[in-house]
Amino acid sequence: MYSGVTELKRFQQFKRNASRGKKTCRAVNHEYTSRADLLNYVQSHALPATVGEMVPAKLYAVDKVTQYWTRFPDVLGCCLIMKRSVEWLGQLIELGHGWALHGDSKHKLHHGRWVLTTFGTHCLAWDDDAKLWRHSFRPLIYMFVRENESKSAVWMAMLCLQLVSDHFFGKPVRSAVNITDHSDGLRSGMQMLNVDPAVEHVETTPHLSDWSHISWHYTHGKILSKSHPHHGEVYVLLRALHLTHTVEMKNLLQATDFTKFARIH
Which domain holds residue 224? Predict the structure, then answer.
């Protein structure tokens, strides 16, 4: 479904075209090896003064972040944004209720040692062809970085979001809750977007890759021996705990499960 942002197929096609043009992963790794290389790129793709001057489907670099690069001496990366994402950002700023910020890396879209990380939110979008509502991701900013999911890199991405918000709208942007997988860098770095350090943070416990990994190790006896008399019961409890959707539900199951584990052992 077209949502005004570049689709996965377009990223994959770009990568194939880059390879055909001898823009190999090794070449890309050697082309951008310093802050000076990134500075040249950022300045040539700088944000315009207004949203109306932005070209649809074109990626712009958050050039103002170069003023703060001394805060991130161990990060070699660049944050990118497009017109549709800026428009969504403006809608979130004017919302009268809280919204969730979701951050995750797209390892299948890496190019050499450069990994794409996206930060955005979710909404319901009407699919006119299928005649139903779909759960759709709305990216707010992209980051290509070598230090994938490090705390400093995520801090820089959050600063870029604030710089874009101030540049176009003159207002700060704040999330009510942050959603990530089990990455310490994402979980701690995304807190920078909010003034209140006590902002609630919820792990994306229904993350399929995480549960698939845990499930495989458990069912193969890597966590608890398959000969254990309560192997099946512990698996059910572990799965329920991992797939909770709220903090309250997780706390309740933890209290209940710990009681059951004590009884099992």
Answer: 208-264
Same domain? 128 vs 217: no
* 211 sits in which H/E element: helix 208-219
Where does residue 117 fall: left (phi above 0), alpha (psi -120 to 50 degrees), or beta otherwise?
beta
Reduce the DSSP state of residue 120 to 3 states and report it.
strand
Reported residue count of the chain is 265
CA–CA separation, 137 and 152 (whole Å): 24
pLDDT in tens, 226-237: 888 888 888 888
Measured CA to CA, the distance from residue 182 to residue 138 in angstroms comes to 21
Model confidence pTM above 0.90: no
* CB neighbour burial string for 195-208, b if at least 16 within 10 angstroms, e if fewer: eeeebebbbbbebe
Mean pLDDT by 10 residues, the chain (265 residues): 52 58 49 78 92 92 89 88 95 87 79 84 85 86 85 90 94 86 80 59 45 71 82 81 73 70 53
How far apart are alpha carbons 1 and 137 in whole angstroms? 11
Whether residue 133 is found in the same domain as residue 230: no
118 DSSP β-pair partners? 104, 142
Q: CB within 8 A of 103, min separation 6: which ones? A: 117, 118, 119, 154, 157, 178, 179, 180, 186, 190
Question: Are 60 and 104 found together in one domain?
Answer: yes
**Number of domains the chain is built from:** 2
Tens digit of each residue's pLDDT (9 = 90 or more) over 198-213: 444 454 444 433 566 6
* 13 shares its domain with 122: yes
